[in-house]
Amino acid sequence: MSKTLSLIGAPVETGASQPGCLMGPDALRTAGIIDVLDGLGYAVRDRGNAYASPDNGVGHPNTAIRNLGETVGWTWSLSEMGYKSASAGDLPVFLGGDHSISMGSVPAVTRHASEQGREQFVLWLDAHPDFHTLDTTQSGNLHGTPVAYVTGQPGFEDIFPPLAATVDPNNVCMFGIRSVDKRERHTLTSNGVTVHDMRAIHEHGVPSLLNAFLERVRAGNSALHVSLDVDFLDPTIAPAVGTTVPGGATFREAHLVMEMLHDSDLVTSLDVVELNPFLDERGRTAKLMVDLVASLFGKRVMDLPTRSY
Fold first, then answer.
1. Are 140 and 124 in contact (CB under 8 A)?
2. Known catalytic membership, residue 181
């Protein structure tokens, strides 16, 4: 794991239905993410917030789609910023922003991994699989499409940036899933995506499921991108998200995932997404997300301070 981190702010809310995610990057900074990572011995380069490339006026027959041109613009911008950071030897940390930022972050690091002759793996920590295409989305919210795009599913070509390299769907592991549309269920199965819903996690436990995936990453000396969505967590501990689904990961389950990722020394890039400070309670979700990021980079849960809210 690189000891130099590039923080890339992605103040994006065009992929979501509820405004507020554009405040996410600065909320994470306010919650102390830079000081925490610096205290863990990392050199932290805050690259500031990205700016979307100009809207090129693209359209699509699916009239439900919202903010298509703006989201394409963010994808171009974040892909370039992330690629430059990875190429410089940094570990890119993308601070979102809704989950459509992964349409830029994942292609950025996948391109870099491909140039190194490495396969790209993705751990998707989320309540939703985000495997809709532009044709199948009914909500029109593009934060529900990034995994389909980065794995090269049809329908994105000539609209979103062409992919220098795609992620093999067999290299995607979805963890904590508990809300899947019927169309997504079929395409997930047919494409060979590994899906561990909350029932599987409760039946088999975090260690056995996550270790099996990490062993695959390690065996191929592959790159690993982790995409952490606030709604991976149970809304009782993380209310600041516009897509709450009951029954998510507990505080301890989430920290266990992060600690295991740190111990694996396999993580090469990270997203922190869907934080909506407008929906938070005195910053509790932002602080929790910073604590989780700290665990991924080496802080033990037993070292966390006591807080009153």
1. no
2. no
Q: Which of 13, 70, 229, 234 is catalytic?
A: 229
Q: Tokens 């994470």 appear where? A: 28
Based on the residue annotation, tell me whether 253 is a catalytic residue of this protein. no
Q: Give pLDDT tens digits for 224-258.
A: 999 999 999 999 999 999 888 999 999 999 999 99
State residue 289's pLDDT score.
97
Q: How many whole angstroms separate alpha carbon 261 and alpha carbon 255?
A: 10
Is residue 308 included in any domain, yes or no? no
Is 247 domain-assigned? yes
143 assigned to active site? yes
Q: State the CB neighbour count (10 A cutoff) for residue 1.
A: 16
Pick the range with the lowest mean pLDDT from 11-25, 224-238, 294-308: 294-308
Selected catalytic residue, list 13, 119, 126, 291: 126
CATH of the domain at 189: 3.40.800.10
The yes-or-no answer on residue 231 being catalytic is yes
Residue 46 annotated to the active site: no
